[in-house]
Amino acid sequence: MRVRDWQDILADVTESDADPDGWRAIAGDRRDGLGEDLFFGHPDEGVYALKTYTKNPRELRGVGSRIARRIDDDLDQLFPRRDRDDAGRFGVQSPPEDDDHAETMATRLEEAVKVHSEAPTGPDDFFTDVMDALDSPAFGPMEYEFDGRPDRLDELSDEFADAEELLSADLDQLVEEDGVGRGFQ
User: Fold this and answer.
1) Number of domain units in the chain
2) Residue 76 within any structural domain of the chain
3) Which of 60, 79, 82, 162 has the most CB atoms less than 10 A away?
4) What is the pLDDT of residues 85-143, one digit of tens each?
5) Residue from 17, 15, 16, 10 nearest 40 by CA
6) Is the CB of residue 162 less than 8 Å from the CB of residue 118?
């Protein structure tokens, strides 16, 4: 397992050729220490783990790694699914390549909003169409607790205990190097 900067992991996710709406995620506070844990999973891409913290209001720092090459039946149960869970949604965005691409995305977004305003569709369909219009490379259901940890996040952390330990040590080192735990000096 190779530990890398969290942004490199997100780049892997956004650059993958996987079906964009096949991603699932779960996130919450870290068990021990400052920051948050985030797991991304896709049947064709495997599982990625990220540990991040906010160094200051403008800078997010963290580490991550690909921790599984695929999602087997045991792991599948730990990630939220649209058809069985009342999960929220997430989307990963890449900026438009140029002005023409931005205009195309805006036009497609306008059309998606217009279609859904005139037709009896549900929130899941609307979300999917908006993500498609914006060329989102990864989106899907997400279980997230702003001020806690979902139970399934603990189960994923336990499943990948070795990765959890390594990533936590690297993140703790970043926090220490940044002096975040020391307050004002």
Assistant:
1) 1
2) yes
3) 79
4) 677 899 998 888 899 999 999 999 999 999 998 888 888 889 999 999 988 999 999 99
5) 10
6) no
